[in-house]
Amino acid sequence: MGSVVMYGSVSVDGFVADEKDQPGPLFDWLTSGDVPLDESGELKVSQESYDHTRSYWNSIGVTVVGRHVFDMTDGWDGTPPSGIEHVVVVTHRPQPEGWDPEAPFHFVEGVEAALAKAQELAGDRIVEVAAGEVGGQVLAAGLVDEVRMDVVPVVFGSGKRFFGLVDVQHLLEDPEVTIQGNRVLHLRYRVRR
Predict the structure, then answer these.
(1) What's phi and psi for 147, nearest 5 deg?
(2) Burial class (CB in 10 A: 0-12, 13-18, 19+), 104
(3) Cβ of 95: how many Cβ atoms within 10 Å?
(4) Any idea what the Cα angle at residue 42 is, between residues 83 and 50, rounded to 5°?
(5) Are 129 and 135 in contact (CB under 8 A)?
(6) Distance in angstroms (rounded) separating the CA atoms of residues 72 and 159
(7) How far is the C-alpha of 104 from the C-alpha of 100, rounded, in Å?
(8) E strand or H helix at 47, and its extent?
(9) Mean of the pLDDT values across residues 107-122?
(10) By its UniProt entry, which Gene3D superfamilies does this protein fall under (predicted)?
(11) Distance between alpha carbon 86 and the CA centroid of its chain, in Å?
(12) Beta-carbon contacts of residue 3 (< 8 Å; ≥ 6 apart)
């Protein structure tokens, strides 16, 4: 079974979006370099960010997101982002009306059930959990093995927290990876058990 990784771009003060649910400059690092990150050619990063991010993206089997992220992205038009094979959506609501049942999206109630479905689909590949409310719930349930964050030099002051509403202390190990790219610092921590 692959590891469970909570991941997201984050402001230095710990937010994944501002009060209006907008990421602002959090993804500017994805266009701050000259090395294409994907086939679209729209994402260009520094060589350091490419080496770190591309290998991570290639190891993801499934991404787990909340219904809010799914709705905000319009379900990525039925195509999982970044070449990921499946997306598991944590939701209490059914899939949207008219949704293509062949799209590789799975609508599951509760984070434990979502993680079980994601691990089934991912096999020995990484299960990525989006930072924010769902990521915080998965961390609180003790199901996260690793936290990866792309720290961007911006201060939001308030907004949507990286760890959601987590209100209990969780210890992480010292960072295993610290890589500086253009306008980003990539960090990787194991969750202490």
Answers:
(1) -115, 125
(2) middle
(3) 17
(4) 65
(5) yes
(6) 16
(7) 9
(8) helix 47-59
(9) 96
(10) Dihydrofolate Reductase, subunit A (3.40.430.10)
(11) 13
(12) 126, 127, 145, 146
Q: Which of 119, 112, 131, 128 is nearest to 23 (CA)?
A: 131
Ramachandran angles phi, psi of 34, nearest 5° = -125, 10
Dihedral of alpha carbons 78, 82, 85, 90, sign:
negative
CA-CA-CA-CA torsion sign (74, 21, 25, 189): negative
What the chain holds in terms of domains, given with CATH numbers, is: 4-190 (3.40.430.10)
User: How far, in Å, CA of 42 to CA of 30, rounded?
Assistant: 9
State pLDDT tens for residues 147-193: 999 999 999 999 999 999 998 899 999 999 999 999 999 999 999 98
Give residue 49's identity as a one-letter amino acid code: S
Beta carbons within 10 angstroms of residue 129's beta carbon: 31
Q: pTM of the predicted model, to two decimals?
A: 0.94
Burial (0-12, 13-18, 19+ Cβ within 10 Å), 66:
buried
